[in-house]
């Protein structure tokens, strides 16, 4: 049998890599534009197919995870996404760039439906493990801006893709050697013991659908736009790509801490009691951020990432609590298909809104979208906890 701690450690590392790989381009595009002779708004849309594949591919990868092997799918994830990152470092034309970024998105689509289901299967306390797993993903987001900024400044943007790609392939080889194909016949169901009344299940589905679309779109837009936003609005503080990466990384660290805290709260309280107050965070902060710069923008950005990453933890825990083992990868596949497909659209939307009215228009548009998360939290029903869930 696999050691739960070993599997969870690898899966947490995969979450780090997944978000890191998807956001290298968002940070590198600042220096790639001049090198390729293209403007920011012209170059950014080449990431759209990759982000769409990030979500759309999850339907197939989640099905394969349930019907074939989650372990085998994770081996493919590590090796495939590593080679795809390396390939970006060798592109010569915008078309090649789009194809390489699409490849990253395809392999990145494996992690969330497959890796998250593995976390639920091996976790003793779902909320805490979801929180820790979220921290790893958030650190991947933060490190992407930081490491890409540093490597891009000192070695060039191509190495910002090649180095992490090579490391990822090596991790994949280690995973293949240390984790065996899993037998899920005796998997625990404790994580799925929380229930709602059958007649209220439609409210869970509707709330999840609404909040996933709103938060996933906003989450992706913020993480894609933040490096460029800081480059423009923090010009009075610094113009160094490396230092801007450090600032962005520092902002994301607060999001990581929030995910851990939210995860612990979900083990003690109902989803609705955690989700409702959290839903009121994003809309006002995004609205105020539209007119801010320098230090005030950094402070408000911390609040934005805390709200966004906290919501992601709630969404993942909701699916984990309400689905059974045999359907879990497919349930996560649907959740991430909807979320990441909406998020993929946000890349083009960021470019269009930026072209129309800069970051002022972009941030206020997403503030309006986040009002939907309040409605989603309100319609969530009360939970019916079984004795097994209370013990867990």
UniProtKB/TrEMBL annotation:
Domain Major facilitator superfamily (MFS) profile per the UniProt entry, residue ranges: 7-385
Swiss-Prot/TrEMBL keywords: Cell membrane, Membrane, Transmembrane, Transmembrane helix, Transport
GO CC terms, sorted: plasma membrane
Bilayer topology term: Multi-pass membrane protein
InterPro entries cross-referenced by the UniProt entry: MFS, MFS_dom, MFS_trans_sf, MFS_Transporters
Membrane-traversing stretches: 20-40, 46-65, 72-91, 97-123, 135-155, 161-180, 201-222, 242-262, 274-290, 296-314, 334-354, 360-380
A molecular function (GO) term: transmembrane transporter activity
Subcellular location: Cell membrane
A matching Pfam family: MFS_1
Protein name: MFS transporter
Species annotation: Bradyrhizobium macuxiense
């Amino acid at each position: 049998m696999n050691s739960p701690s070993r599997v969870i450690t690898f899966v947490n590392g995969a979450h780090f890599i997944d978000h890191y790989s998807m956001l290298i381009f968002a940070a590198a595009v600042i220096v790639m534009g001049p090198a390729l002779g293209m403007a920011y708004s012209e170059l950014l849309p080449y990431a759209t197919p990759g982000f769409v594949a990030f979500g759309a591919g999850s339907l197939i990868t989640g099905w394969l995870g349930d019907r074939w092997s989650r372990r085998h799918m994770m081996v493919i994830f590590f090796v495939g996404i590593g080679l795809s990152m390396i390939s970006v470092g060798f592109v010569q034309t915008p078309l090649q760039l789009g194809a390489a970024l699409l490849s990253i998105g395809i392999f990145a689509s494996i992690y969330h439906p497959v890796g998250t289901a593995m976390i639920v299967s091996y976790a003793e306390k779902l909320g805490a493990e979801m929180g820790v797993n979220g921290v790893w993903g958030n650190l991947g987001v933060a490190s992407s801006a930081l490491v890409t900024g540093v490597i891009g400044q000192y070695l060039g943007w191509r190495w910002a893709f090649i180095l992490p790609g090579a490391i990822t392939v090596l991790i994949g080889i280690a995973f293949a050697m240390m984790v065996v194909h899993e037998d899920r016949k005796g998997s625990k169901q404790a994580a799925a013991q929380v229930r709602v009344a059958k007649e209220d299940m439609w409210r869970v589905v509707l709330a999840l659908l609404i909040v996933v679309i709103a938060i996933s779109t906003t989450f992706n837009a913020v993480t894609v736009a933040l490096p460029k936003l800081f480059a423009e609005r923090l010009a009075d503080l610094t113009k160094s790509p490396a230092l801007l990466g450090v600032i962005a990384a520092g902002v994301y660290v607060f999001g990581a801490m929030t995910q851990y805290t939210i995860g612990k709260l979900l083990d003690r309280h109902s989803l609705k009691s955690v989700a409702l107050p959290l839903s009121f965070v994003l809309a006002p902060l995004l609205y105020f951020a539209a007119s801010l710069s320098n230090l005030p923008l950094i402070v408000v950005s911390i609040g934005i990432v805390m709200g966004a990453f906290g919501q992601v933890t709630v969404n993942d825990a909701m699916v984990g609590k309400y689905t059974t083992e045999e359907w879990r990868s497919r349930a996560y596949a649907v959740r991430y298909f909807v979320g990441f497909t909406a998020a993929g659209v946000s890349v083009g939307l960021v470019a269009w809104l930026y072209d129309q009215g800069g970051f002022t228009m972009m941030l206020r548009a997403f503030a309006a979208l986040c009002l939907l998360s309040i409605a989603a939290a309100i319609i969530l029903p009360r939970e019916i906890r079984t004795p097994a869930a209370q013990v867990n």
